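Section: Multi-chain targets

For targets with more than one molecule, the full set of components is provided together so that the structure can be written out for the assembly as a whole rather than chain by chain. Components appear in the order listed by the source. The example entry contains two components.
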Amino acid sequence: MAVDVLIPNAGQTSGEATILRWLKKPGDSVKIGEALLEVETDKATMEVEATAAGVLQGVRYETGAVVPVLTAVAVIVEAGERPKPPARPSGFPFKEEGEALSPPAPIRHARRGGGAQPDSGDLLAIMRAHRPGRALASPLARALAADTGLALTAVTGSGPRGRIMKRDTQSEAIGARPSQPTTEPGSRWIPFSATRRTIAERMAASWREAPQVTLTTEADAEALARLRAQFQIDLPDADDLSYTDLFVKIAAAALREQPQLNARVEDGGIRLFDAIHIGLAVDTERGLVVPVIREADRKGVAQIARERRDLAERARGGRLRPDELSGGTFTLTNLGAFEIDAFTPIVNPPEGAVLGVGRIVKKPVVRDDELRPGMTVVLSLTFDHRLVDGGPAARFLQRIKTLVEKPHLLIA
Amino acid sequence: MKRLSIAEALREAMREEMQRDERVFLLGEDIGIPQGFGGAFTVTLGLSDEFGHERVVDTPISEKAIVGAAVGAAMMGMRPIADVQYSDFLFCAADEIVNQAAKMTYMSGGTVKVPMVLRAPVGATNRGAQHAQSPEGFFMHVPGWKVAVPATAYDAKGLLKTAVRDDSPVLIFEHKRLYGKGGRKEAGGLDLTSDIPDEEYCIPFGQAVIRREGSDLTVVATLLMMHRSLAAADLLAQEGINVEVIDPRTLVPFDDGTVLASVAKTGKLLIVEEDNLTGGWGAEVAARVADAGFDLLDAPIKRLASYDVPMPFAPVLENFVVPSVERIVEMARAIVKGKV
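Its structure, encoded as tokens over all components, is:
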């Protein structure tokens, strides 16, 4: 009965061992417990001992070979027993009992197959020898990694033999492994909620995929403040008409004039959208949600205000429909209520740009060479640099600034 | 040492086995009649003169009778080698092949053996839909049969001798275009003879041959398609694509290991078969590699086969339906270049 000589699994993290040297030669008699070869793992150097008495045969890996753990590197057969054929072809010519070694057949006869089923470790060893650096990943995981720009070499596979699977690309994307939290004294670990997970994945994807640049400018907000106050007086049901509603209208109008940022990167190209759908970042107890105001450029501020009020209320109640949360072509985020002046918003994928609005605040301003009290707002535009360069993005933000300062141009 | 064609090598194998073992006998249509051809393809030519009509038995035109008699004789301890002229006619004896020969050993708890050999020529050769099939896949599906597919004279002799000595029923599929000495355009102009050693040899079942080594793509093909794959590999080599061509030699047992080890190296697999695509042996091989070699693959496993139609009689259409060297080249190139 032949017994395999296996590379032991000694807890090495790499799952592989390097054969340093063979201490026994093929044909040598060996006793149980005798050292057969020396291997080196990433943890230690160790000897592999015989687990059976007999004769060493079928040595399949030379000194220096890197083999996965639990690979059979040789067999121990009983004295007088024929070794089993090696589980993979071992070169030409290949001689075996039962077939006299013939001169080469006229048809090319490069090499004879072994006829035995190699184990998966053997196959992976062959693969690594011929295709070094190839990650072990499922086709789906490869596609997902390619989509998100994830380097497979940076991912640890959780599948059989370390195969990277879909779940591994996702946990890599969110930088955590919910299945295996480590315990740490003085801290507690909370699994992602569904909303948190979505946010984490989308933000990470945005950060990875889109080279983002943020431009900031300060606009005079006095005209806008006056306009808002006037609307509140003149429009019925508009007593809560907010700056956000005005910025939605302004952003939509600017996009209509300069549509380059009403777009996304898609399949190695740019998809430009005809319709302008503005997503509104809404802070809720569950986390950030971004309901969408559709065709915002074709709506008046009163209607925008009504829709914004309805969407925001239902967002806080968690009652938005999925279609109300998708399809945005540009996002607006307003942190003015929290006394934030300027910030660097992150593009909401797959969109191409986001406008961040700071607080509208009374400040000393210089007008007509005179220092006087005024109102200003800082505007922060983050855009995907793959879509446009700094020039067009700057012109877009400049146009928004103009519309903020001269909102009558909206009806020009 | 001598150079023999497949037909001659098969004849020599039968002669040696008949000399060695008096239980071995041949039966089939027109295999031993005086002034005959030695069966449809000259394989048994001269053997009735040598061994007499008791051991080279001419039968009526009834495959059911031929196979039925062979099954019965084998069950009673003889070692018949039966010949059906065209593999298409195996279906006439489906009950004997599938329900009787394949099952007897198992149904009798191993007390009854059916050590018969059934020889069946395959391949499209301008003879129309009923004389053109390559039904190896059908019989690979039936547990109990072993299936050999020799593409060279050397293999034909060694595999037939092993088949005679095997206690299981063995089907040997021989390709009509490969019987001769070769050089014909239809066979790709290849020399189809092999050096046959003077000393006796048998070839164990289940051991593939790597006909050509390569690093870019593994091609598994049998019979005529193996030769066309080699021709395609020559052309592809001119554009820097190195194809490894594997000839399984037997479909049952199948040498999964050699194919998997090759795919481990190349990451890409093309299976070429002359049978039509759906449900052929290539589908089984593809499934096995997808299973055991999932992590080795860098591209989808592709199969090239005849289209799913009865073989047309018109030569132009037949040539269109059966995979050509050009189709193999195109598919191999597409796989290697990542276009599929």
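The two ends of chain B are 46 Å apart (CA to CA).
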